[in-house]
Structure formats: structure tokens, C-alpha cells
Write a structure and sequence with these properties.
Elements: H1 23-32, H2 37-50, E1 55-56, H3 58-68, H4 75-85, E2 93-94, H5 95-107, H6 110-121, E3 129-130, H7 131-145, H8 158-169, E4 176-177, H9 179-187, H10 190-195
Antiparallel strand pairs: 1-2, 3-4
Length: 209
């Protein structure tokens, strides 16, 4: 949430979040994330500054991505990521949801990041990734990066890219990927691992003192 997004209307009838985390909240978040209490306090201060209600809405989330990918359309991809951050499905991202997901995507182990990525691709949350689900995500990524990358001919459409992924990952040829197939295959596919680095452009949220 950079300078362009910090001017959020703050009417008197709008809900306001607490200005500080309680000691109990800090202890819980410190135990469940890779952040220290000091870092958590800083992140919370920035989060509440830009989201006084304590809730990050989907349009605000999409705007973050639009600043980082001005040559493409990141709207769809940001929506998919938003749904993973919104762990309880209530239509907005709380600070707890935000910092928990951020901890995994920025500081988690490769296995943790791949588990998170599986949740991103498994759109309907049935425990499998179908070709259609992966095509939707890859299409969203291609739309987001626009002309930033020149893709090889055998990967220049989402369908081609997904066929290539399934050819190596779908070891039992059933047309869908289990969590284990996805994680094992991703470790051998640099593209999937690299794609994890674009799931949250956090520099726009973290600000300097």
C-alpha cells in the first residue's frame, strides 16, 4: 500500500481497528509466524494506517498489484491470491490473515511455500489441481506480466504451459495433481518456484520509517 493507496476514506461511522496489537495477540502471532514482535508491531502500524478498519478489501488488494504490474492486467491473479489470504472466506483480509500468509510466502521453507502455492492453484479446494484450474491461474499470470517476458513457443499460451506441466507432474496420468505430485514436480520445475516470488508484492505495503 504505497502513497497512491493510502488515502482511504475514514468516515466516523466506519469501523476502526485497535491502534495496537494486544500482548496476547503479539504472542500468538510471534508463535505462528516468522516475524519478531518488533516486526509485527511495524507491520500492524503500516496495515492499520492504510486500512483503518483493520480489513483489506479486494479492490485495495488488486490496486497493490496494479502498481507493480502496470504493463499487464493483474486483476485476476490478485483475486486468486486474495482468496488464499482470506483464510476464513469472509470477503476481506484481516491483519492476522495477512501476516500469516506473508510469513509463509516471504520467509517460509520451500515445502511451506509449495503448500501455499497448491492452495492457490486448487481453486475449488477439493484437494486436487485440475488442468482447468491451472489454466485459469497461468492465464492470470500471463495477463499480469503482459509483455515483460518473451515466452518460448511451447509455452506461449496457458494451455501449452499447463500441458507441459502436467506431462511431468501427473505421474499417474489421471488428469489431476495431488498435493504430493504438485510439490514434487514443482521442485523440479524452476518456473513454478519462481512464480512463488510474485504472489505478494510486499514492498508496496512495507514502508520506511
Amino acid at each position: 500500500m504505497g502513497k497512491n493507496n493510502s488515502k482511504i476514506k475514514n468516515d466516523s461511522n466506519k469501523k476502526k481497528a485497535n491502534k495496537k496489537l494486544t500482548e496476547e495477540e503479539l504472542n500468538e502471532l510471534e508463535s505462528k509466524t516468522y516475524f519478531t514482535k518488533r516486526e509485527l508491531k511495524k507491520w500492524y502500524k503500516d496495515f492499520i494506517r492504510d486500512c483503518p478498519s483493520g480489513e483489506l478489501q479486494i479492490d485495495e488488494f488488486q490496486n497493490i498489484y496494479k502498481q507493480f504490474f502496470p504493463n499487464g492486467d493483474p486483476t485476476k491473479f490478485a483475486s486468486f491470491v486474495f482468496n488464499v489470504f482470506d483464510n476464513n472466506g469472509d470477503g476481506h483480509i484481516s491483519f492476522k490473515e495477512f501476516i500469516s500468509a506473508l510469513s509463509l510466502t516471504s520467509q517460509g521453507s520451500l515445502d511451506e511455500k509449495l503448500d501455499w502455492a497448491f492452495s492457490l492453484y486448487d481453486v475449488d479446494k477439493d484437494g486436487f489441481i485440475t488442468k482447468l484450474e491451472m489454466i485459469n491461474i497461468v492465464d492470470a499470470i500471463y495477463s499480469m506480466i503482459g509483455n515483460m517476458l518473451e515466452l518460448p513457443k511451447d509455452e506461449d499460451t496457458p494451455e501449452k504451459r499447463v500441458e507441459k506441466i502436467f506431462a511431468t507432474m501427473d505421474v499417474n496420468y489421471d488428469g489431476k495433481l495431488t498435493r504430493d505430485e504438485f510439490k514434487q514436480g514443482s521442485k523440479n520445475d524452476p518456473w513454478i518456484v519462481q512464480a512463488l516470488t510474485i504472489d505478494m508484492p510486499t514492498d508496496d505495503i512495507k514502508t520506511t520509517e
